[in-house]
Amino acid sequence: MLPTWEDSYSINNESIDAQHKKLFELAAVAYNLENKYVSKQQIKDVLNGFFEYMKIHFSDEEEYMLSIGYPKLDEHKKIHSYIIQSMVRLISKIHNTNDMKEQLSVIAKKWLLEHILQEDMKIESWRRKATFATSQESKTTKQDDKFCYVCSCKSRFVTAEIHEKIKCGAKFVCKKCGEVIVYMPNKN
Fold it and tell me: I need a labelling partner for 117 at 20 to 30 A (CA). Which of 10, 27, 65, 92 fits?
């Protein structure tokens, strides 16, 4: 059985959360076809609807991640690309209705469980940490000579000199997590 939407799955973005809810509904429709008699065309219609909505959602979600400076955006885009490619292969290889129903339900479940419930929740976890760390450090650091940067493990302030080097193309890597630090502009 597939999980149903819960508020605890929220990434605190109204638009993305609404899309996630819709994807839960579409995945449930796809998953429930496995034990029903349906035609090949019905399966194709469900798959196409699911596929088209996922493409829109992925684009919107990537824009959101970019807007908040999510440091694992490129990695997340690769996951989106893999899911889309899997769906294209699935749609193009529809031969046997029963096999198709089984594959469709597995993809719906795998996509929901592994992507929204694991990967997308990392976005919210990072956003929460970055927001908290930025607000805490901005209380104790002069903003006019320090610039806030983040990675997945921490938020830190760097000097104007390092900030200028990064603006000119230099990359600085967090010694703890190994990720390139990303500028988090002050939203005040």
Answer: 92
